[in-house]
Amino acid sequence: MRSTLWKRTLFSARYTWIKSTFGYSKVPLWVGWRGHSSNSFSSNPTDETNNHNSRNSPHNTNSGTISTDTTSNVPPSSSDEGASSTKSAKTIHICVHSVVESKTKRIQAPVGMTLMEAIRDIAKLDIEASCDGCCACSTCHVIFTTETYVKLREPPTEEELDMLDLAPSATKSSRLSCQVRLTEEMDGIEVSIPDEMEP
After folding, report:
1. How confident is residue 1, by pLDDT bands cut at 50, 70 and 90?
2. pLDDT on residue 55
3. Helix/strand/coil (H, E, C) string of the chain?
């Protein structure tokens, strides 16, 4: 026991003398801690710390390069969803005849659009629609054929009937086109825009 303590004391004193005499970087290779080679010593005290950290780093690999995971949980592009919704959009066929313009247009319009919007924006026929779909006038009045009138899902409201009373050429199959929303059951409907100026 005494011999071991004496050897450690002698080694410590010897190492201190060498360090103070030659400097830390000049410690001979044969001098090491507990008999190990002095390869563990570095000329720069911070090098040992850096080397230790690099060995324990989770990014350290045998090849010396950092491994990067290139996979990512990226959600599907919104453009893909838009494309699928466009393909699934349903349209129906409508035949519109304008008495004033003497034109007949056969169009396809999306389900959910109002008949007035389809006539104005898709068929590009002249329909006044002064109140712009607020059911406050009768200037978007259209007449359905008897065969296609039965395809309408919703009957006219009291407000719509009041406005139809103001239309000069209203019939039993008349509707305000702004109050008719297109459904799949209405595929193939035929309507005409009457000349309200006729006596």
Report:
1. low
2. 52
3. CHHHHHHHHHHHHHHHHHHHHHCHHHCCCCCCHHHCCHHHCCCCHHHHHHHHHHHHCCCCCCCCCCCCCCCCCCCCCHHHHHHHHHHHCCEEEEEEEECCCCEEEEEEEECCCEHHHHHHHHCCCCCCCCCCCCCCCCCCEEEECHHHHCCCCCCCCHHHHHHHCCCCCCCCCEEEHHHCECCHHHCCEEEEECCCCCC
pLDDT at site 196:
85
> What domains does the chain contain, in order, with CATH numbers?
2-56 (no CATH), 89-193 (3.10.20.30)
Q: Does the pLDDT value for residue 67 go beyond 80?
A: no
* 0.90 surpassed by pTM: no
Alpha carbon distance 1, 97 (integer Å): 117
Which residue did the predictor score with more confidence, 190 or 7? 190
